[in-house]
Amino acid sequence: MRWCNWSLFGLFTIAATSTVPCSVHSTLPHDGRCLPCDQLGHPANPKSFYHIGHIATGGTLQAKGNSSTDTTHYQVAASGFDFVIDAIRGPLSDGPRVVSRQSLELDSINFRAEDFLRIYHEISDMLRQPGALGVVVSAGSSTLAQLAKFLEHTLDPNKRVILTAAFKPYTAYGADGPGNLLASIRAITTPGWSGVGILINDRILRPHGTVKSNGYFKPGPGTYFADIRNFKPRFKHHQWEIPKTINISSLSPEHELPRVEVITRSLDFDVRIVEDAIARNVEGLIFVGYDDGYWPDKSRYRIEELAQEYPHVIMVMVSQDPTITVEYERVAGLMRGGRWNPDQLQPILQIAICSLPSREEIQEFILEPFRPADLRRSRVDW
């Protein structure tokens, strides 16, 4: 097993800090230069000491179509974040400053691990600014739940971070992006919660097990904790688990993370797919099995041999359905994947291979990604 950061052995940390070389009074633009916040910000209330960070990464929320009725053929990130902020500046006039930054200009289907690391560092940097209440990240919806889960297990769970997206481009009739951004900013200013949330479809969801399906975000078990009414959050009686976190502050966006691939079961599965992946020096394989971890016998026996022959390759079995827990070792040598879905586990496994010292600790993190039940937090309706 290759370790990316020897100093992190066995360390689960509550506070994730960035080593980006900027002072606490500056933010980090995409080109790496450090500029004062007020040179980057779009202040709704310039006199307010408190502020909310906004990191724009592209996606449909900033997209531009050919006309106001075009919701399918549009250019991602063609509308600057200035236009989106300007659309909601009025309702924010008496609130905290909004400090915006265009970090990336990507369709989220093109996100790479380095982009997740960059977003993590920029959020961490913004959260360290004096007076920071939290951070809103606007991104594409395709990998929103995957990014949110990555951030949930790397950022300080005592901070507030909201990820939001849009299903219609900014130029279309009924564009939902500005309203989602407004509601996200208001959620940051609402007390009584912390951690990472996904604001979409007029709801706020926790990341674990949440998936996008046919233009709709289906919440994972127990993750639906707020409604949006009149662009304001209305929190439900909610008890949430505190995530364990992995300190990745020393991993820069340029750091090459271990290669982790997802392999899905199928009729007449060809085990050479697994053999080829190992030959390409992957360091992690996530198997998506049937039900709670079953795999066809014809290829299962060979996979068990490969797991024994290549113990340095971390192999994990998960279910496609986040409501199903993989708690038994149906395939010898493969780790049990618990309640993870494959897309959310993939980037987490990359940093776990880097940062955790043993297979046993990786397995423990996968099976128990949250702290004990007696440390859960709760809140009630306002």
Question: What's the short version?
Answer:
This protein is an alpha/beta fold and 382 residues long. It is 24% helix and 23% strand.
Rg, Å, rounded:
21 Å
Let me know the largest β-sheet. 8 strands, mixed
What's the arrangement of strands in the largest beta sheet?
A: 6-3-7-8-9-10-13-14
How helix-rich are the residues, as a percent range? 10-25%
**Would you count the extended β strands for me?**
20
Give the count of helical stretches. 9
How would you state the average pLDDT, rounded?
A: 86
| Alpha-carbon distance between the two ends | 49 Å
Work out the strand percent.
15-25%
Helix-strand sequence = EEHEEEHEHEHEHEEEEEEEEHEHEEHHE
The gross shape turns out to be globular
Low-confidence runs (pLDDT<50, min 5 residues)? 5-41, 378-382
Structural class: alpha/beta
Note the main attributes of this structure.
8-stranded mixed sheet, globular, 9 helices, alpha/beta, 382 residues, single chain, 23% strand, 20 strands, 4-stranded parallel sheet
What features would you describe in this structure?
- GO terms for molecular function: asparaginase activity.
- The active site is at 60 (o-isoaspartyl threonine intermediate).
- InterPro entries: Asp/glu_Ase-like_sf, Asparaginase/glutaminase-like, L-asparaginase_C, L-asparaginase_N, L-asparaginase_N_sf.
- This is asparaginase.
- The protein is globular, with a radius of gyration of 21 Å.
- The protein has helices at residues 37-40, 81-87, 113-127, 144-152, 177-189, 272-279, 297-309, 342-355, 359-367, and strands spanning 26-27, 35-36, 51-58, 64-65, 74-75, 97-106, 132-138, 160-164, 195-200, 203-205, 211-212, 217-218, 224-229, 232-235, 238-240, 260-264, 284-289, 314-319, 335-336, 377-379.
- Strand 17 (284-289), helix 7 (297-309) and strand 18 (314-319) form a beta-alpha-beta unit.
- An eight-stranded mixed sheet has the order 6-3-7-8-9-10-13-14, sandwiched between helices.
- By secondary structure, the protein is an alpha/beta fold.
- 46% of the residues are buried.
